[in-house]
Amino acid sequence: MPQKALSIIIPAYNEEKNIPLVIPGIIDFCRKNGYRLIIVNDGSSDNSKEELIGLGADDCLTVIHHKINQGYGGAIKTGISTCETTYLVTMDCDGQHFVENVKDLHDQLLLHDADMVVGSRKGLRSNSITRSVGKRIIRFIIKRLMPLPIYDINSGMKLYRTDLGKKYCKICPDGMAYSDVICLTFINKYHRVIETPIRINERKLGHSTVSMRTALHTIYEVFNIIILFNPIRIFLPVALVAIGSGIAWDIPIFLRGNGVSVGAMLAIVFGLITLFFAALAEQLSQIRKKDL
């Protein structure tokens, strides 16, 4: 691989304890392999900034400091805007990812002529039952609403083409849902997305900021991206169920000679209005997709 062909982007928020443990090894790895390392300190309220400054200057290292916290996705977007290499890979700052897996992801991308390779944690157990259940729910919802050729959609370790990252990150959220939405965007735009197994460590130190609220927000953002790319999958079933329920409800009433009930009429009208919005949303979706 040509020198400087790949950048590792790491968002860091309140990781003062992990930075001295994790980052020096990644810098050494990048130096040996000719990679770039971009760390975005996302407005940390602890001593993360001082720890990053203490790393010193290095030709392969770029450190960016946000004055205020912009969110996990916001930090990655900043890193992408700075990236000048052909490919980029995102990693976490908590030491869970093995930097050696970057080569595995890049090899798979070249081998399969892919546009994105997801580091899959399939088969690996999570110590957090809440996070595990949340991920299962998110995958279940997505698979019912759109094609999903991969398993670990919310993996924080993804390698993809920088030009596509710059193009699509603008429609991705600034929060933790970024990982899911960028992957869904690649899939919906018909880019080749594959996954390959990676190893996972336990978090070195500190506490994760992922919570049930994060999972709920991710589901909300997933619905947003599906409505953007394929709104008919959301609105059409609702419209058909409403119309069908209204008709089924009124059949016995109509056969008794009592005409059309108010409830049945409301259900049918609601379904027709929803069907109208489905057609309108589909037209708007086609226009927006042309701009991407």
Give me the secondary-structure topology.
Layout: E1 6-12, H1 19-33, E2 36-42, H2 48-53, E3 61-66, H3 72-82, E4 87-90, H4 101-111, E5 116-120, H5 129-145, E6 158-161, H6 162-168, H7 178-188, E7 193-197, H8 212-229, H9 232-255, H10 262-290
Helix pairs in contact: 5-8, 7-8, 9-10
Please describe what this structure looks like:
The protein has 292 residues and is α/β, with parallel strands linked by helices. The chain folds into two domains: 224 residues, Spore Coat Polysaccharide Biosynthesis Protein SpsA, Chain A (Alpha-Beta Complex); 59 residues. Helix content is 51%, strand content 13%. The protein contains ten helices and seven strands. A seven-stranded mixed sheet has the order 3-2-1-4-6-5-7, with helices on both faces. Helix 5 runs parallel beside helix 8. The longest helix is centred in the C-terminal third of the chain and has 29 residues. The model has no long low-confidence stretch (mean pLDDT 86).
In this structure, how is the largest beta sheet organized?
7 strands, mixed
Portion in helices: 40-55%
Number of beta strands: 7
Total helical segments: 10
**How much of the residues is beta strand, in percent?**
5-15%
Identify low-pLDDT runs: none
Count the domains: 2
Helix/strand class = alpha/beta
Second CATH tier, the architecture of the largest domain: Alpha-Beta Complex
Q: How would you summarize this macromolecular structure in one to three sentences?
A:
The chain has 292 residues and is of the alpha/beta class. It is built from ten helices and seven strands.
